[in-house]
Amino acid sequence: MKYDVAIIGAGITGAALARELSKYELNIILLEKEIEPAFGVSKSNSGIIHSGTQNPSDSLKGKLCVEGNRLMREEIAKDLGLNFIQCGQLITAFDEEEKKKLFEIKQEGEKLGVPGLEIKDRQWLNKNEPNLSKEVIAALFSPSAGIISPYRYVYALIENATDNGVILKTESKVLAIEQKGPKDFEIKTEKEYFKTSFVVNCAGLYAQEIAEMIGIKDIKIVPRKGEEYLLDKKRENISNHIIFPLPSKNSKGILMIKTSDGNPMIGPTAHEIEDKEDLSTTENGLNEVLEGVKRMIPSVDKSDIIAYFAGLRPSCGKDFVIRYEKNRDGFLNMAGIQSPGLTAAPASAAYAADILFKNGLSCAKKKNFKKYRQRPIHLFQIPLSKTEELIQKDPSYGDIVCRCEMVSAMEIRQAIKRGAKTLDGIKFRTRAQAGRCHGGFCTSRIMKILSEELNISPLEITKKGKNSNIIKRIK
Amino acid sequence: MKEREIVIIGAGPAGLAAALGAKDKGAKDILIIERDQYLGGILNQCIHNGFGLHRFKEELTGPEYAQRYADMVKSAGIEISDRTFAVKITNKKEIFCLKPGEMMKLKAKAIILATGCRERTREMIPIHGFRPSGVYPAGLAQKMINIEGWIPGEEAVIIGSGDIGLIMARRMIFEGMKVKAVIEIMPKSRGLRRNIRQCLEDFSIPLYLSHKVTKIHGKERVEKVSVCKVDESFKEIKDTSFDIKCDTVLVSVGLIPENELLEAAGGLIDKKTNSPVCLKPYQTSIEGIFSCGNCNKVYDLVDWVSRDSYEAGGLAAMYANGELK
Ligand SMILES: Cc1cc2nc3c(=O)[nH]c(=O)nc-3n(C[C@H](O)[C@H](O)[C@H](O)COP(=O)(O)OP(=O)(O)OC[C@H]3O[C@@H](n4cnc5c(N)ncnc54)[C@H](O)[C@@H]3O)c2cc1C
Ligand SMILES: Cc1cc2nc3c(=O)[nH]c(=O)nc-3n(C[C@H](O)[C@H](O)[C@H](O)COP(=O)(O)OP(=O)(O)OC[C@H]3O[C@@H](n4cnc5c(N)ncnc54)[C@H](O)[C@@H]3O)c2cc1C
Fold first, then answer.
1. Angle (deg, nearest 10), helices A409-417 and A423-430
2. What is the residue range of A242's domain?
3. Are residues A138 and A2 in the same domain?
4. What is the whole-number distance in angstroms between the Cα of residue A12 and the centre of ligand 1?
5. A113 with A240, same domain?
6. Is the domain of A155 the same as that of A304?
7. Which CATH class is domain B121-251?
8. Is the pLDDT of residue A335 over 90?
9. What total number of domains does chain A contain?
10. For residues B64 and B40, is the Cβ–Cβ distance under 8 A?
């Protein structure tokens, strides 16, 4: 069989494109090298649905960011049952010089179409952001910005896409692509061969390697590392908005971030590195983050930190590179999807789909496209009275597995039914093991449930796929 | 909302002893709430000897010690609700619990918190580097080996020389693993002398004092750790760094009292220790809410947990029938 489109990479970019194209009468395959989707850049970022400020007004990423933000607010959160929280953002100024810059950022944002921008004075800040440093004299308020769980966003897109016929193949690393003619490709993965008319490269940090497979040499991905540190949920109300300093040359700076699960987060750093797998955190990174954020919110304390991670922005120059390769008819690159790639994803997908249609992909709409995806239930998101009703219907909602984050056996089983295969997959979907004890209490129980549901031995259970097994022997 | 005289949260050694103390001081209606399906708390995974020397004048294993108390509680006719997880308490002494098929709502005259503690994690130190599989809190490794029979790896390094880390060193040797080193940042071990002798020296396991792990390596599974010597202010001493190859890292860097229920109800918590602020012994800042065992302060010996918790239970009973001023 020949597919119409093969999408390489099941991060946010590939997932959003898969869902977009699943609205049409097309045979689509989504190929992912990892054991689960969202294990690349899309799992380790700030989770901000940016408003679009801090981007040049003539940039592609700026335009797609503003549109992606609108789509989230007006359609996607509702259609896909996502916990999007529109908390708004503040960019802070510490002196008159900086305040002038706020006006410039405001103007540039307005050119891009960012709605509702306003400069707020000290009085407003006293009332609406009480923990903010008294040294901040003004801030640019951007009401359309918000937060989301990035991996759950990817899972939602993929669940809806596969519900609409997209075929997802995980543990399917693309090793070679052969172009046999115009709109005629053969893709070789670790296990199989696939024929397809169109190929879309959404491989994140590895977009360069994929492009090189068909001889495209001008895509150079430079990883830029960002370390992030999560604070205890007890500090949930440390800020009411996402708080930024003025942007620097190559990043938006160290932020006070809110997350949709409650834990505040501080970061990220921005340093170019060489190794595309170097997700290590460092003492220097931690110090840089603490220093940066304490300038804005002095009460942040090192002892509030309960978790940390690093992510790598797949940068390729200053902007996204979404480009149809005329000399490789049928091949579309979506490379250099650095920040704000999470926000832009649905808009990038629509933009990419349009390019494909212009180049001959059939655009007959599906009559029975299923727009909605059923929202998974998370006890930590609902009041106890609701939990009580659920338990009466289904007893295993009352069987709490993760005590720090209150996750029931039912939620873990549901996550597995929706595709979780690993401990990290369970963590990303349900928050079990993501709290203050880091799985000290619940890991063995989760392993037993995984082993039962997937019918595998505990020996085969991994943290995040190949070679990350948890145990070596059973007595 | 069901009214009860005394509700105890947690059926570890603290909760069990508190129940007996309350009963002996005249409480008629006692309910113990326990998340797990068995009684005895953390003792169930401590299959080594050394419990009960003071309390019973004999050397018992953890489960044996737990069994004695479970038997006493049962023969005293005290009610236990197992697989029941207390999710919320209030300053009006209401208790909300989840169990399979049911949400229990109770109102007590006195509450006794006996929820134990959790382990500090690598994230809290923090130990930098990669986050592969193979890094476990020591208590989790103990549970995997002793309760599930799951052996986590081949070659381990242990971070921290507290008693749990020491006991796990010996345990892993017994299970055929290699223990390459114990790394302790302090100039002296916090562990009991007899544990250092019986768990490390007898097996020639090196203990590196005034050393710390600076980085965990390995993208999928742990491959090695970087270790260096530290000065009095715990800063790395230049040119002392070396690597130890291993596939498993146990983190045994202390325990933290679990007091999130109390904190959410508005009770005062000492920021440094995470213990409740108690003006009088075992009495939290919320009147009628008592605290004992490891959630009150971290104990080394279970014998003292039992002794003190028995007393706390008695106080709660006196409070409930109006005898405590
Ligand atoms: C620290 C940090 C903070 C950020 N914060 C934000 C933010 O707040 N808001 C925002 O909008 N954006 C943010 N971003 C940017 C955002 O995370 C990225 O733009 C986005 O996740 C990129 O998604 P992607 O799908 O293009 O890449 P990825 O998620 O990396 O997806 C690519 C996928 O391709 C797979 N793959 C690679 N090679 C192959 C192969 N040969 N065969 C098969 N599959 C392959 C990978 O395994 C991966 O799953 C941040 C980024 C970082 C690093
Ligand atoms: C790993 C380890 C090894 C040890 N080794 C020794 C030793 O060798 N010798 C020695 O004398 N002492 C030892 N100790 C110390 C001793 O075992 C402890 O001090 C003692 O078990 C503490 O008792 P506890 O009842 O306070 O806590 P735990 O034993 O931890 O019991 C707490 C109970 O509360 C339950 N619980 C918690 N929260 C809730 C909730 N919200 N709802 C319902 N139930 C809840 C838990 O499930 C648990 O059963 C060790 C301790 C540990 C952690």
1. 110
2. 85-146+222-314
3. no
4. 7
5. yes
6. no
7. alpha beta
8. yes
9. 3
10. no
Q: How far apart are CA A377 and CA A369, in angstroms?
A: 24
Q: How many percent of chain A have pLDDT more than 70?
A: 100
Any idea what the CATH number is for the domain that residue A400 is in?
1.10.10.1100
Q: Which of A299, A314, A329 is the last residue of a domain?
A: A314
The string of pLDDT tens digits covering residues A408-451 is 999 999 999 999 999 999 999 999 999 888 899 999 999 999 99
Mean local confidence (pLDDT), A379-383? 94
**A473 domain residue, yes or no:** no
Residue A471 belongs to a domain: no
Judge: domain B2-118+255-320, CATH 3.50.50.60.
Answer: yes
- Rounded average pLDDT over A169-195: 97
Rounded Cα gap, residues B291 and B284, in angstroms? 7
Statement to judge: residues A164 and A78 lie in one domain: yes
Mean pLDDT estimate for chain B: 96
Residues B154, B136: contact at Cβ < 8 Å? no
State whether B154 and A466 contact (CB < 8 Å).
no
- A89 and A66 in a single domain? The answer is no
* pLDDT in the model for residue B219: 93
Buried b (16+ CB within 10 A) or exposed e, A256-272: bbbbbbbbbbbbbbbbe
Q: Which amino acid is present at A137?
A: I
Q: What are phi and psi of A321, to 5 degrees?
A: -115, 95
List CB contacts (< 8 A) between A303 and chain B: 124, 271
Query: What is d(CA A339, CA A21) in angstroms, rounded to the nearest whole number?
Result: 23
Q: Note whether A242 and A87 are within 8 A (CB).
A: yes
| Ligand nearest, relative to CA of residue B309 | 2
Rounded to the nearest whole angstrom, what is the distance from the C-alpha of residue A338 to the centroid of ligand 2?
Answer: 47
What is the band of A251 on the pLDDT scale with cuts at 50, 70, 90?
confident
In a domain, residue A470? The reply is: no
Tokens representing A441 are 């209490």
Confidence class of residue B10 from pLDDT cuts 50, 70 and 90? Answer: very high
Phi, psi of B245 (to 5 degrees): -75, 135
CA distance linking residue A214 with residue A435, whole number of Å: 44
A173 & A158 share domain: yes
Secondary structure element (H or E) that encloses residue A134, with its range:
none
- Mean pLDDT over A276-302 rounds to 95
Domain of A297: which CATH number? Answer: 3.30.9.10
Residues 435-454, chain A, touching B (beta carbon < 8 A): 436-441, 443-444
For A182, other C-beta atoms within 10 Å of its C-beta total 11
Same domain, residue pair A335 and A396: no
| The domain boundary residue, chosen from A293, A314, A335 | A314
> Mutate which of A34, A42, A158 to test ligand 1's pocket (most atoms within 8 Å of Cβ)?
A42
Query: Any idea what the Cα angle at residue A144 is, between residues A140 and A149, rounded to 5°?
Result: 115
Q: Are A172 and A192 in contact (CB under 8 A)?
A: yes
The two beta strands, A2-8 and A193-201, are parallel
Q: What pLDDT does A303 receive?
A: 87
Given this model, what pLDDT does residue A436 score? 86
Q: Domain-by-domain residue ranges, chain B?
A: 2-118+255-320, 121-251
Q: Assess whether A139 and A171 both reside in one domain.
A: no
pLDDT single digits (tens) B278-299? 989 999 999 999 999 999 999 9
Instruction: Return the DSSP state at B198.
Output: I
Q: What angle do CA A40, A43, A47 make, to 5 degrees?
A: 135
ipTM for the whole complex: 0.95
Query: Is the Cβ of A395 closer than 8 Å to some Cβ of chain B?
Result: yes
Structural domain includes residue A468: no
Structure confidence by residue, pLDDT tens digits, A82-133: 999 999 999 999 999 999 999 999 999 999 999 999 999 999 999 999 999 9
pLDDT of residue B125: 84
Shortest Cα–Cα distance, A394 to chain B (Å):
7
Confirm or reject contact between A287 and chain B (CB < 8 A).
no
Tell me the CATH number at A196: 3.50.50.60
Tell me if the pTM is above 0.90.
yes
